[in-house]
Amino acid sequence: MLMVALFIIQFVFSVIIGIYFLNMLKGQTSSRRSLEQESKKELLKLQRLRQVHLTKPLSEVTRPSSLDEIIGQKQGLKALRAAICSPNPQHVIIYGPPGVGKTAAARVVLEEAKKNPMSPFTSGAKYIEIDATTLRFDERGIADPLIGTVHDPIYQGAGSYGPAGVPQPKAGAVTKAHGGMLFIDEIGELHPIQMNKLLKVLEDRCVFFESAYYSAYDSNIPPHIHDIFQNGLPADFRLVGATTKTPDEIPPAIRSRCIEIFFKPLTNEEIKTIAKNAAQKGGVSIDSEGLSLIARYAHSGRDAVSMVQIASSVAIYEHRTKIQTKDIEWVIEFGQYNPKIEKKVEKGSAIGFVNGLAVYGASFGTVMDIEVNATAGSGKLVITGIIENEELVNHAQRLTRKSSAKSSVENMLTVLKRYYGIDFLQYDIHINFPGSAPIDGPSAGVAIACGVYSAVYGVPIDSQIAMTGEIAIQGTVRPVGGVVAKVEAAINAGIKKVIIPKENYRELFSKMDIEVVSVENIFEVFETVFGIKSDKKEHFASLPHDTKIIAATSI
């Protein structure tokens, strides 16, 4: 009886186990069928989605496909082509305001390089573009789409190697760009850790990974993963970074590895060209009055295209093929566009009023008003509109000093007293830099000197003259920065003559539509501005001239 009971119990357990595994098999089969059906449904949805196509927005239609289609950046494109299309291409950082063609230039210059038989870029060279402002970064090292990461077995996404305990390296953008170009928009926004990792990749031209789960002696790890951990993933590319920041806001380590190229703001004529081309590609026309209105309110090429896009939609909706001025006015009103502040000089002259030249941001030139008032008094000096003090941060030190703009005023007083006999104790002088932007830097020295001389002696200054240059207490005019941008700003303002330091003179100025006068000392400045000739110029022949010092300036 006992044996029969045991047999029955064993038989019951066998039946139960059999039923259990049979149900599991049925469940797996049912699950597989359900998965296949769900997959078919999703695939059908995906196919339907891919059958829907909208027309391309005008911004995409007008996207430049060649260097010739990029408007207003002749010098910048020449430099970029020299850096990328040569037999030995370089890493590049492009500075410039938004919407002037930095991204488009990087894309098309790679295509230009592929056409050069001496270029190392092959026809299959890839263009990989990422945006540093949206680039995901995990300080734990789990995800890094720029450099790449290792999916360790314990983390989600470890793939098929996870259950086997095998770490799996994942390539980042630097490896995807291998043999081509990696474009990083707003490169100045990169996380500091990512920036340091990128510098290491630029040095090694490959990416090395680490993982606590990797062992060189583990025979379960596939050969290709051994190869990656031991030799790294290849990452030999050329970096092109774009930024709207100024050079001093970009880490020096990355700047030292790159050629720095500056794209300038677009002029009104260049914005008109962009708007006209956009209208033509959009199938409409626009008259000169409409183009002038767009140029007045569009701060970039992107703004111009957007304004044309909306205005052309209004025209087409009303069955017109021409954009009217009222369409542009409506776009400006509803889009709340603000007019650009542009300096335009008028013919004439004024006492104590002089045009200085300034740069702001990444070498964007502008004409700066300087006004001086001098009255009989007791030697009171008032300076408004400048930065009074500068703070310098050097490693662990934080230093404060008198601003270079204020120092340039004191240098000017010394020079005028020494060479022109002006006793400032007999005058109350007010020097003002109108405008909301605080002024800093020494390069307004010669302009301030002319303004003070004009105010003291009542001698007017021609409004169509502008000037820049640092003045030393010996009366010499020293070189300053951003002179090309300053001269271009003077041309846009309608100025006919510009005075610059002799050491800043470039051959390209002779081809510009403006008279550029280079000077070495204050006597040459006053001779040009006031017609005052002096026999003291020989004094400067014996003075040392340091041609290597270029003043870092924002004026």
Detailed description of the structure:
This protein is of the alpha/beta class and 555 residues long. It has three domains: 59-211 and 225-262, P-loop containing nucleotide triphosphate hydrolases (Rossmann fold, 3-Layer(aba) Sandwich); 268-335, Orthogonal Bundle (Helicase, Ruva Protein, domain 3); 349-542, Ribosomal Protein S5, domain 2. Helices cover 37% and strands 19% of the residues. The chain contains 16 helices and 24 strands. The strands form eight sheets. Strands 15-18-14-13-20-23-24 form a seven-stranded mixed sheet. Strands 2-5-8-1-9 form a five-stranded parallel sheet. A two-stranded antiparallel sheet has the order 3-4. A hairpin with a 2-residue loop joins strand 16 and strand 17 (397-402). Helix 9 (268-281) packs parallel to helix 11 (301-317) and helix 11 (301-317) crosses helix 12 (325-335). The radius of gyration is 34 Å and the shape is elongated. The chain starts with a helix and ends in a 25-residue tail after the last helix. The relative contact order is 0.08.
